[in-house]
From TrEMBL:
Superkingdom of the source species: Bacteria
InterPro entries: AB_hydrolase_fold (IPR029058), Esterase-like (IPR000801), Ig-like_fold (IPR013783), Ig_E-set (IPR014756), Mycobacterial_A85_antigen (IPR050583)
Signal sequence, renumbered to the chain: none
PANTHER family in the cross-refs: DIACYLGLYCEROL ACYLTRANSFERASE_MYCOLYLTRANSFERASE AG85A (PTHR48098:SF1), ENTEROCHELIN ESTERASE-RELATED (PTHR48098)
Organism of derivation: Galbibacter marinus
Gene Ontology molecular function: acyltransferase activity, transferring groups other than amino-acyl groups
SUPFAM superfamilies cross-referenced by the UniProt entry: alpha/beta-Hydrolases, E set domains
Protein name as catalogued: Esterase
Amino acid sequence: MKQLQLLLVIGAIIGSFSIASGQETIKEDFKPSTLNQPGQKYPQVNSQGYARFRIIAPAADSVKVSLGLGGRGGTVLHKKEDGSWMGTTEGPMDEGFHYYHLTVDGGTFNDPGTLNFYGSTRWESGIEIPAHDQDFYALKDVPHGQVHKILFPSKVSGPSAVAYVYTPPGYSKDQSKRYPVLYLQHGWGEDETAWSNQGHANLIMDNLIAEGKTEPFLIVMTYGMTNEIKFGGLRDFDITPFQTKLVDELIPYVDENFRTIADREHRAMAGLSMGGMETKMVTLNKPETFSHYALLSGGIYTPEDIKDQSDIKLIFLSCGSKERPESIKNATADLKESGANVVSYISEGTAHEFQTWRRSLKELAPLLFKN
């Protein structure tokens, strides 16, 4: 089962871009992506989910857009008389956020028309395909929390390490109130900025809290020390340094410097993809630290993994419908039969990508820290 989980994570990490098969008429209702830099008209997306790119490179001999985490898939651009290169994806892309970069005459470059996001162990260009359900992470006229950048002492990362802490609306006003904490991990190739920048975790929480769908809690995001691992090397991954950094350094710092409820009943851990693998390892190694576990496209728990289910408040498993949902469904059934409080979620129409994980956080948050 452990080998199967590793294979699932490896295979899923690679494929975050999907092209639909078949022929259809492309609608010419393209608009600039919401992630474009100010004043930039390209890249563009249309109502069907196609993306169109325009690059100014008059001296180039070839230009290609590589889409998806790791740059798999791609769109060949064609040179125009004015020296620009243009092209449209062969099919619609999945809803939500996607990484991409340019390959110009064999060299790797970012698109100057759009913003950059840390993924694939580098700052990549990003494009947003409008989603039918994007309202849950939209910027709205509601009370907003804050995302704080902190430096905490760390012998592991030495001399200090970076984390981001989301505090919910009203945190700074009521100085007597204390909050539960979710420790939320990114995936391979990403860092502590991913859940705020690509995932919109803060906006998801703001909207859920404003709608009364979840109790407020803190979210802590730090680098999972994953990016030195190459594809095929997961079997050699040692959780010990990150586990020490998280449990022995970061959690005590957060409990000392933020108004937390500093016990395991009010502490959760979740992670996407390789961050889910880390979450499983840490929660099983340190059952005295966390009471809520969540794996987002990050493998499964089995009844054999859980020694004492009475101390676990929640197990949450999720993935996209284009991943391997049968694994999540089977694991959920097995855990329920063994008596665990387990909830699963399948994101319809998405693969190993941030729309899956945005939706997963939206489903997870209301389940955490319920009385």
